[in-house]
Amino acid sequence: MKLLTGNDLPTGDVVWWTGDGWSRHLVDAVDVGANGEAIAAAEQGARRVNVPYVIDASATPDGPRPAHIKDRIRALGPTVRPDLTLKPADASAGNWVI
Amino acid sequence: MYRYDEYDQAMVDARVDEFRDQVARRLSGRMTEDQFKPLRLMNGLYLQLHAYMLRVAVPYGTLSSRQTRMLAHVARRYDRGYGHFTTRQNIQYNWIKLEDAPDILAELATVEMHAIQTSGNCIRNISADQYAGAAADEVADPRPWAELIRQWSSFHPEFSYLPRKFKIAVIAAAEDRAAMRLHDIGLRLIVRNGELGAEVYAGGGMGRTPMIAPLIRDFVPAADLLSYLEAALRVYNRYGRRDNIYKARIKILVHEIGADAYRAQVEEEFLAVKALGIDPPAAELARITAMFAPPPFTTDLPDAIDLPDAIDRTDPDFAIWVDRNVAAHKQPGHSIVNVSLKPAGGIPGDASADQIDVLADLAERYGHDELRVTHAQNIVLPHVATRDLPAVWAALVKAGLAEANLDLVTDIIACPGLDYCSLANARSIPLAQKIQARFADPVRQRDLGELKLKISGCINACGHHHAGHIGILGVDRKGVENYQLLLGGSGAEDVSLGKITGPGFSEDGVVDAIERVTDRYVAVRQPGERFLDTYRRVGFETFKEAVYG
User: Fold this and answer.
1) How close B118 comes to chain A (CA, Å)?
2) Which residue among A9, A68, A73 sits closest to B419, beta carbon to beta carbon?
């Protein structure tokens, strides 16, 4: 599957395309198929996202999993600061990155 | 310390106003990201893996307590409660909002700080010996010269769009604590026949093509220093490779045409530049120098060198910390305190807002209001009365800042790596933590002695892996983190570049490999030898054999 990601312009937060908007949570991301570049251009033009790009991912029972470690870290947060990740209550969340 | 004059302040304030307008235009859509990116970078604002990152300049690593408190305030109010001290003696914040950036810069300007020229192809923050003004072995205080170069290079119209970024270091001692020869230009102040001047080295650097800077001029009189730098930069600006980013640094130019040819060009240009009169008049130099006058040291204290007589060392932990983290001061009765930002299990170079405030308080109460950031990502209190060391240590212990591991295997330089940096290929920090855990026994650390371990998460070498006695380079191997091991580097006066041992390792594998290296060191070392000494004596192959069998 293909996901569209980028950063929120005013805050810089990592965001994921949900089909009708942007979410801070990877679990909300949807497969954009071959439409990623077109969506990215439109959304960037409207300043609803900054520097969007398309990534490869796989569907898992727990939600989308980016193919590359860099995007998994973007999705979770720094693996060395579990208190600052999107899953602060999950002490083993960092293992998901590997 | 240097204090802004009306021109300095006006320049910084004007830049804040300009950037506020640029941010407003970006947020309103009147500017695209392509248009905005070079402008934000000129103000130290990057877009990193999780958010915007702001790199704040700490000129030659020197801070006052007031400035340090502001850094804590920025961490607390605008970031997530911490900052990261860098190998360029700066501080970075990892969670900045674009909409907050103008206010942050405005607040920094109130304490004479900014983020100008912390990115881009310009002359970056000047680095210097963190013991400047305190070191017993310096011939002069390098800071007035670093400040002069800062002023000369700030908004320099000819050097704002160089072929590539440009880093200058200034030291004034035989011991190199600033990796001087791994800079684009390195200056070592020396005295010859009673006259102050500088050795000039050019064309050093790390990154994907590490080079040790060759000597270009063995003595430039101090009165000619800016003219000589201007000439050196002009030659680079004219002939540096703008067509290939990987060959654009001055090190490539100096290497390709040779030090002699580069020197000849610079000397010719220098004759023309000197006539322009850009070196400062004596009165201006005196004005700057006066701001770095020694603080009012107490003069009735026992000699700092004779520590056992000066302080109570009965607490073994305190004694270990003194022996490891405290250095001799040129002023009798005073000491230089190194505060390690490498606690076991911590993140190298990170400090919480509360810790930064503690450091500011200690500097104010015990350290003549001065702090330094080191390229090894630690903090120095340069002027502490030796009799105050127990009180300083007790406060550091309370704040979690009393790790007694300066220059030991756990005092690891590590870049932010793939946990934060969009350029990185592999994580650096978790590896640093695993190495710290493996070598957690403080007795073992001290037995291994000085062992500088440096980790970079990509070829750009922000973690100085080329200069590590043991260096580690993280690479991306088909989407999996992999770590190459290097041995034999040094950023000190015995400068050398590390050599890659061979095939890379997994994260756990490289920790095991490091332990095989240190075990071999222990097995073959001679009395008094550091790891680097033993490596140089017995050679690379002995350690390679230990690593791979």
Assistant:
1) 19
2) A73
Nearest of B368, B510, B256, B527 to residue B1 by alpha carbon: B368
Angle at B43 (CA atoms; ends B40, B47), nearest 5 degrees: 45
**Contact flag B50-A12 (C-beta cutoff 8 Å):** yes
Q: Is B431 on the interface with A (CB under 8 A)?
A: no
* Pairs from A90-96 (Cβ < 8 Å, separation ≥ 24): A96/A65, A96/A72
- Closest partner residue to A10 among B27, B94, B481, by Cβ? B27
- Gap between the Cα atoms of B321 and B545, Å rounded: 35
How confident is the model over B270-284, as pLDDT tens digits?
A: 999 999 999 999 999
CB B443 within 8 A of CB B456: no
Q: Is B30 on the interface with A (CB under 8 A)?
A: no
Cα–Cα distance for residue pair B31/B39, rounded to 1 Å: 11
**Residue A25 burial (CB < 10 Å; 0-12/13-18/19+)?**
middle
Q: Which residue of A has its CA nearest to B27?
A: A10
CB of B524 within 8 Å of a chain A CB? The answer is: no
Indicate the SS3 state at residue B378: coil
Contacts of A73 (CB under 8 A, 6+ apart): A79, A97, B49, B418, B419, B427
- What burial letters (b/e) apply to B29-62, b meaning 16+ CB within 10 Å? eebeeeebbebbbbbbbbbbbbbbbbbbbbbbbb
| B29 interaction partners in chain A (CB closer than 8 Å) | 47
- Write the pLDDT tens digit of every residue in B233-277: 999 999 999 999 999 999 999 999 999 999 999 999 999 999 999
The predicted model scores a pTM of 0.97
- Does the beta carbon of B34 lie under 8 angstroms from any beta carbon of chain A? no
Sequence spans of domains, chain B? 6-55+82-109, 134-290, 307-398, 413-548
Which CATH number is associated with domain B307-398?
3.90.480.20
Q: Do A47 and B27 touch (CB under 8 A)?
A: yes
- Residues of chain A with Cβ-Cβ distance to B429 below 8 Å are 78, 80
Chain A touched by B99 (CB under 8 Å): yes
pLDDT at B306 over 60: no
DSSP B177: S
> Are the Cβ atoms of A51 and B47 closer than 8 angstroms?
yes
| Contact between A80 and B49 using a beta-carbon 8 Å cutoff | no
The CATH classification of domain B134-290, taken from the options 3.30.310.10, 3.40.1190.10, 2.40.30.200, 3.30.413.10: 3.30.413.10
Q: Tell me if domain B134-290 and domain B307-398 are identical in fold.
A: no
Q: Among all residues of chain B, which has the CA nearest to that of A46?
A: B29
pLDDT tens digits, residue range B424-482? 999 999 999 999 999 999 999 999 999 999 999 999 999 999 999 999 999 999 989 99
Of the candidates B351, B385, B478, B466, the residue with the CA atom closest to the CA atom of residue B426 = B478
